[in-house]
Amino acid sequence: MKLLMMISIWFISSNHPISMILILIFSTLLMNFYIYIQLKSTWFPLMVTLLILGGMLAIFLYITSLTPNKKFHMIKIPILLSTMVLMIKTKTNLFMNFQQNQVFNMFTNSPTTLIIIMMIYLLVTLIAIMMMIKAAMAPMKSSN
After folding, report:
1. What is the arithmetic mean of pLDDT over 109-113?
2. Is residue 72 predicted with pLDDT exceeding 70?
3. Interacting residues of 36 by C-beta distance below 8 A, sequence separation 6+
4. Based on the structure, what is the number of domains in the chain?
5. How far apart are CA 72 and CA 18, in angstroms?
6. Looking at the UniProt record for this protein, which Gene Ontology cellular component terms does it annotate, in alphabetical order (predicted)?
């Protein structure tokens, strides 16, 4: 769980769409690993992976096509050091003790509600992106 917190801090501090996409993919895979260990089922993490990465990568593709070309800079050292201190200070391993965690109970109580909410969100996002593309009847990025 601490590794997931560290990745979230990196995501907030990144300023380039490519680094955001890479961090998003890694955090999604890590979150799905936690869900798999907790539920002992592969179907729910697979659906979460497809939904989150499918929807969010479409949004990031659109954002990336609109942003100007910038140089890709690596993560700054102070942010990296502060996240490492967060992990070292508590003397626990990177993967949490799953018996004491209450966060994953939301997945076991009613997973259907969560899945329906994610599906509706991604459907609305897909429709919004398609409307933006159809309105212009042109590529997403202008050639100016």
Report:
1. 65
2. no
3. 42, 45
4. 1
5. 8
6. mitochondrial membrane
The structure tokens 């769409």 sit at 17
* Pairwise CA distance, residues 119 & 54, whole Å: 11
Other beta carbons within 10 angstroms of residue 26's beta carbon come to 15
20 contact partners, CB below 8 Å, separation of at least 6: 11, 14, 60
Considering the domain boundaries, does residue 84 fall inside one?
yes
In the predicted structure, residue 94 carries a pLDDT above the cut 60: no
Start-to-end CA span in the chain (Å) = 45
Instruction: Let me know if residue 125 belongs to a domain.
Output: yes
Decide if 103 is inside a domain.
Answer: yes
Please answer whether residues 15 and 58 qualify as being in contact, where contact means their C-beta atoms are separated by less than 8 angstroms.
no
Q: Where are the beta strands (DSSP E) in 25-105?
A: none
Residue 34 contacts residue 40 (beta carbons within 8 Å): no
Give Cα 10 distance to the centre of its chain: 12
